[in-house]
Amino acid sequence: MSLTIQGLSHQIIDGDNHRHLLDNLSLSVAQGECVALMGESGSGKTTLLNLIAGLEPVQQGKIDVAGLALQQASDKQLSQLRKQHIGIIFQQFNLLTSLSVQDNIEFSAKLAGRYNAEHGLALAEQLGISELLNKYPATLSGGEMQRVAIARALNSRPQLLLADEPTGNLDENNSCHVVEQLVNLAKSNNTALLMVTHSVDVARSMDKIYRLQDGSLSLFTG
Ligand SMILES: Nc1ncnc2c1ncn2[C@@H]1O[C@H](COP(=O)(O)OP(=O)(O)O)[C@@H](O)[C@H]1O
Ligand SMILES: [Mg+2]
User: Fold this and answer.
1) Considering the domain 3-219 in this protein, what is its CATH number?
2) What is the DSSP-derived secondary structure letter of residue 95?
3) Pocket test for ligand 1, best of 12, 13, 22 (most atoms within 8 A of CB)
4) Mean pLDDT score of the chain, rounded to an integer?
5) CA geometry: angle at 112 spanning 106 and 114, to 5°?
6) Ligand 1 neighbourhood includes 117 CB (under 6 angstroms)
7) Measured between alpha carbons, how far is residue 54 from residues 50, 62, 70, 144, 183 in Å?
């Protein structure tokens, strides 16, 4: 398994109240498995991704990513895990504005110590962004930025790829196409994918769809 979560609970302080955002939640995602995460705004999807990425401390329960038990890990181990084994695609893509598209794509792979020029170029080719390599992020459209962010995240060949509404500001047709590409690439790289999306159409190209509600996950079969 690339990701195993057991009995995860997470409280937040909301004014004077403690709110159980996540309540005894469990989830497993195998290598190469693509999972969609849906749920209402405020249900805790981003918090769950942050916990899995080791960006927020585990309060209760167990999270295991690529063989590391996050609840026992040091800050150094967590940052090493993020560099080596986790890819993240943020809602706003977070491309590095001072670097060219090519340097953006190479960045994560170099951090992971897994830089391979041919792999980066092949990803750019597969995502249809080869002709953008010398451009800078500020000159790209939203859809182009998204594909660059996908290439960057996959180029380090992570065991687990986390994506938080990566299709948020793109139209449905475009989104479905890019997500299909993302799923195919994740599978051919044997990368597990956990993707937050609001679109049922987008979610349908994934292997499983979970809904986060009242702190736990249920398999969505609609
Ligand atoms: N560190 C925090 N402290 C207090 N409240 C938080 C914190 N992080 C998130 N929240 C609250 O938790 C809820 C879930 O947030 P979030 O995980 O961003 O949900 P989603 O991504 O599903 O929209 C929201 O009500 C948010 O305001
Ligand atoms: Mg969110």
Assistant:
1) 3.40.50.300
2) -
3) 12
4) 92
5) 70
6) no
7) 6, 12, 7, 28, 24
The larger pLDDT score, comparing residue 4 to residue 13, is at 4
Count of Cβ atoms closer than 10 Å to residue 93 Cβ? 22
For 74-92, the pLDDT digits (tens) are: 999 999 999 999 999 987 7
Average pLDDT over residues 34-45: 96
pLDDT tens digit string along 138-176? 999 988 998 999 999 999 999 999 999 887 667 777 777
Q: Which conformational region is residue 143 in: left (phi greater than 0), alpha (psi within -120 to 50 degrees), or beta?
A: alpha
Q: In this structure, what DSSP letter does residue 99 have?
A: S
Question: Domain coordinates of the chain in residue numbers?
Answer: 3-219
Tokens encoding 69: 């038990």
Check pocket membership of 42 for ligand 1, CB cut-off 6 A: yes
